[in-house]
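Example S7 (structure tokens).
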């Protein structure tokens, strides 16, 4: 009570000054601020004395609680400063919302592009995808300490995932010739193969301009890194060598006959056979592999891929490849495993330029034990040595039609009593008179997951 006037704050927020007689002298609803809401009971009109219109602003108060309008009641801006504030705030909100929407659409587009790229490689199968971050951490940022070797198209690293699983990561060079089609070929082919003598592909990564292939880690590296190393080859005794030959034969037979897809490897060699902890062999590197139709017997290409010394003559000279091309490569491997010598580096100045010719002459002369690796003990079975060398020579015959199929090869290796045909003179037995400039010069690497991958041509 001040003098004869009392002030009362009503429940609806209206501050009222009344005289002693109860007459309303002044009320706050007649003079709303620019940032309040028009509440229930607030009047809107024109002062008859000042002719000034009274309106109410739509914005919330800058500070303190605001009075919310009752449901269904209208609210209007008050004063000339309220309209400008609303316009400015609307522009700011528009810009912010526009930026957010733009960023969202850009992120959505990037995600869509990545998903589309992955589907181009593996259809709808996302289970094989690894993030680059996970592989980067697993390999300790691709450190030199984790580098297992250098292939023709990039290094290979050892890694360990967060779940403890050890992996081998093939990191393809950004500037290499191993394009998206070759990458797609290897992923699609090997992801559909399941056999104990084939290396298992765990996944892949396409991210940050990186193309990575993630394989199971095999601790004993590649066959050539053991077989042709004087300090390591002693661990490959006679029985282990025969077991490796038989395992590779089983894996190749699966590719040619029993897998979901009929596959010609086209680059079978000792550096593309990996050894697990128990020295079991696993065929790797399917970048040059070709898928054949059910009734397709052979293919041809002008772009010859593979490795010098393992290619059959019809493929090296004419670009014709088939199951028998892989059989020839396998035959070379048999002779290398038995002798401990590499076909491409063997040189006998008196008579031969390669291992095949050297073995042929010793076999025809009955000097079988001179073919076997000198590091092997004297407990070698002459019968087994004769049998395996015989099969190897059948596989490297010059005419593809004379070579056995892998079904025949497996039978010949496992059945000692089986009568074998007499092999004809093998290809390249005397002199390698091919024009080397026409052959691919793919460097071999004595390391795990060594690769020689080239363009894949359509049939």
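Recovered sequence:
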């Amino acid at each position: 009570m001040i003098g004869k006037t009392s002030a009362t704050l009503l429940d609806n927020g209206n501050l009222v000054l009344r005289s002693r007689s109860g007459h309303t002298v002044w009320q706050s609803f007649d003079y709303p601020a620019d940032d309040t809401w028009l509440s229930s009971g607030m009047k809107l009109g024109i002062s008859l004395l000042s002719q000034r219109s009274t309106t109410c602003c739509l914005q919330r108060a800058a500070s303190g609680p605001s009075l919310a309008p009752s449901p269904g009641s209208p609210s209007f801006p008050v004063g000339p400063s309220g309209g400008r504030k609303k316009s400015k705030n609307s522009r700011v909100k528009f810009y912010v919302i526009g930026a957010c929407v733009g960023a969202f659409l850009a992120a959505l587009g990037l995600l869509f592009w990545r998903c589309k790229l992955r589907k181009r490689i593996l259809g709808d199968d996302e289970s094989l995808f690894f993030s680059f971050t996970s592989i980067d951490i697993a390999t300790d940022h691709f450190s030199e300490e984790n580098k297992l070797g250098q292939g023709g198209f990039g290094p290979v690293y050892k890694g360990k995932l967060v779940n403890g699983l050890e992996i081998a990561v093939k990191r393809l060079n950004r500037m290499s010739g191993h394009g998206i089609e070759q990458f797609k070929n290897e992923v699609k082919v090997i992801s559909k193969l399941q056999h104990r003598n084939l290396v298992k592909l765990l996944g892949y990564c396409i991210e940050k301009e990186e193309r990575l292939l993630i394989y199971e880690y095999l601790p004993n590296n590649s066959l050539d890194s053991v077989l042709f190393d004087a300090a390591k080859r002693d661990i490959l005794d006679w029985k282990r060598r025969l077991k490796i030959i038989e395992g590779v034969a089983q894996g190749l037979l699966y590719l040619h006959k029993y897998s979901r897809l009929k596959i010609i490897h086209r680059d079978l060699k000792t550096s593309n056979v990996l050894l697990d902890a128990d020295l079991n062999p696993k065929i790797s590197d399917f970048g040059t592999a070709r898928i054949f139709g059910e009734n397709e017997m052979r293919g041809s290409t002008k772009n010859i891929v593979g490795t010098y010394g393992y290619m059959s003559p019809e493929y090296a000279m004419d670009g014709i490849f088939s199951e028998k091309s892989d059989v020839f490569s396998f035959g070379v491997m048999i002779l290398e495993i038995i002798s401990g010598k590499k076909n491409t580096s063997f040189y006998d100045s008196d008579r031969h330029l390669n291992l095949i010719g050297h073995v042929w002459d010793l076999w025809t002369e009955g000097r079988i034990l001179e073919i076997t690796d000198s590091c092997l003990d004297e407990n070698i079975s002459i019968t087994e040595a004769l049998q395996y060398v015989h099969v190897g020579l059948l596989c490297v015959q010059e005419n593809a039609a004379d070579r056995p199929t892998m079904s025949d090869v497996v039978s010949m290796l496992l059945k000692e009593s089986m009568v074998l045909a007499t092999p004809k003179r093998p290809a390249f037995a005397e002199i390698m008179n091919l024009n080397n400039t026409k052959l691919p010069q793919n460097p071999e690497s004595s390391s795990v997951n060594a690769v020689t991958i080239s363009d894949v041509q359509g049939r």
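Notes on this example. Confidence is low (pLDDT under 50) at residues 45-67, 75-79, 432-459.
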